[in-house]
Specification:
The protein has 211 residues and is α+β, with helices and mostly antiparallel strands. Helix content is 30%, strand content 18%. The protein starts with a strand and ends with a strand. It has one domain.
Length: 211
Amino acid sequence: MSHSSDTTIRVTLDEKTHFPLVTIKDIGTLTLWPITKIQFEMYISQVNQYGDTWYDEILKCNPRVSYQQVTKKNYEQLFISGLFIEEVHSFSKWFGQGFRILTVDEYTKIYRLMESQPSITAPPNDMSYPAKKIWGKMREFSKNSQIKFSLMQDGLIEYVSSRESFEGRGAPRSNILPNALNPLTDPVKKIKSEDRLNYLGFRLIRGIRHE
């Protein structure tokens, strides 16, 4: 079941994890939030290609917090970060046909749209229990701001594609990354390709050509 906040945004669920997606006219369907650790753990339990040592390394970068115990101080820990781009690509193939990270142009258009939208008030009825709990918490923390509810503001730096390369966009809270970044104009480049960055997450989109 879907929920419509207006004629521009429609909320549905992904088929693999039953977390919220938003469909935006003339752009595509994307994850409402950056990918969570819960979703990523569903993936690694099915593909059986990542061991405990590997995941321990990821959690050292950004420790896990239970969706039952998350607070306004630590909600960033709900979301997977510190992945290399090849690991992001592997997850996106599992997540669903046509899903990929956003382009810079898509990110910019969606960010501006989210800034102008009223907050989405009701989730789809058949959303997963963890997603419902996170929805309620993010509604509380974002105080009816759609750009904050979606975590495009006060979230993580997110992978985006720029021509043949990748960069980050976003403006996390200062406790995650002290910054004066403008998400629309200021790219974040990885200094060393082997670094796992605790503030670098991702969301996925299936562009309009795949709808």
